[in-house]
């Protein structure tokens, strides 16, 4: 009888341990983003208050890697629960069956700008590619629109452009060549690459935000295409940089849940929090990237508002994420060939 009681006690303790482990697993999630100041702000604005309110631990991971996400889903061994991705990838990944549909009984879809929500993704934030310039390098010559990038006489020096085959560079080349914003798509690739050919030897390519800031602040590039939040951060640090918002090109990041995520329920709760009016406003106030929740505008820092894309909606061109989701891989092949010519 005593042995039986001991066995029962051991079994009970083992079952309790397993139950606790299961509870702990269910009460955590892995959040993946791009690192740097952006992920720091996401942690401060979303993860920390979310964990405090719910008891769900948010483990930070990264950087975002599309190939790794796809491999995880296809292998059935998904280690990530919420991933910050570019908007066009979110749409393409959904079409390939790589993402979980979102739970809109928790996420308030009607509060999200329709440009930045789909059945499988909700906006993380949106931003603009803007024309930034080093005032010390250009002096009194202040560029006003994308045509300045292609006018090397008036605006001498290197041009900093985003090196990845994604929305932005081809569009600004076409706008500078006289294409009307409402006539951009489908992209005239021949015309865009021909325009870029005229300054190819003057381009320095950047692949991440910190690199773009270094190029502009140091004067290695006199002007170029930049994420608005990065230019704002340089201005806050006192760097001699200016910005033009004319035809600012709107791009977005989406938050998605990989198919087969182990902590899907916790992930949906996190997305509801991150896309809320408070969560979006808090992140915007820390980064100068714009909120996707329409109720966030009233919560923005008054001094920050003029530095957000939301203040320049009248002269804004929203990049076509769906077009890129469908055609991006073919464009990437041509882009990579052009880079090495």
Structure description:
The structure is a single chain. By secondary structure, the chain is α/β, with parallel strands linked by helices. 42% of the residues lie in helices and 19% in strands. It has 12 helices and 10 strands. Strands 1, 2, 3, 4, 5, 6, 7, 8, 9 and 10 form a 10-stranded mixed beta sheet that branches. Helix 2 links the parallel strand 1 and strand 2. The radius of gyration is 23 Å and the shape is globular. The N and C termini lie far apart (84 Å). The N terminus is likely disordered.
Radius of gyration: 23 Å
Terminus-to-terminus distance? 84 Å
How much β-strand is present in the residues?
15-25%
Helix percent reads 40-55%
Could you name the key traits of this structure?
about 350 residues; disordered N terminus; 12 helices; ten-stranded mixed beta sheet; alpha/beta
